[in-house]
Amino acid sequence: MNSLAQRFYMTFLFEDRYLFFLDGLKTTLFLTLGSFLLGTLLGALLCAALRSSRPVLARPARVLTAFFLQIPTMVLLMVLVYILFGQSTLPVLLIVLVGLTVKTGVTLAVTFRTALEAVSPGEVEAARTLGMNASSTFIYVVLPQVVSAAMPLYKDQFVMTLQETSVVGYLAVMDLTMASDVVASRTLDAFFGLFAITVVYFLLGLAGRALLGRLGRRGHLGGEAP
Fold this sequence. Notes:
Layout: H1 2-13, H2 18-50, H3 55-70, H4 73-84, H5 92-117, H6 121-129, H7 134-164, H8 176-187, H9 191-218
Helix pairs in contact: 2-3, 2-5, 2-7, 2-8, 3-5, 4-5, 5-7, 6-7, 7-9, 8-9
């Protein structure tokens, strides 16, 4: 018992090492929330381009979506940090945010497109027959069904985005995983650090999924799909 207490002390309390984990948590939250929200916007724009009847919009969107879906997140981030922005003075954290936003955006674009294509054209035609204009039809007929169909995958994408932030430590960004590695290198004991960040990632994922589910229901936009 004393040994465990000493290991806990050395991991978190000695030299205020818990501050590494707090800084890492801030970075992880920033990257997760920032890339997820911006990725949602990017995904919506890409989805509109993918469904556009104009080839000048649809073709580039299809190429970009297909390309970035196939590129591993770590490879994309390394290309951005070390090649495309290798000579830039931009903070690495912002470059990483751009990369994670792109990965999240292209994935959500496919999710949104699939959900839109699942809406029955007959319901849209019926709404227009009843005198609803295009905007009202989209808001009151199409959007609730899209949200209901897309919400499970949308929540899964939040968790995936959270998980993908764990690779940014290889780019010298102090996230939760990097904080655990730094402390472990000083204590030569990874147990408590890895246990702590495992719990934190788990709780953040649960909290994000629960919040998105509540927002969907509260907005009367379908909430959970059965």
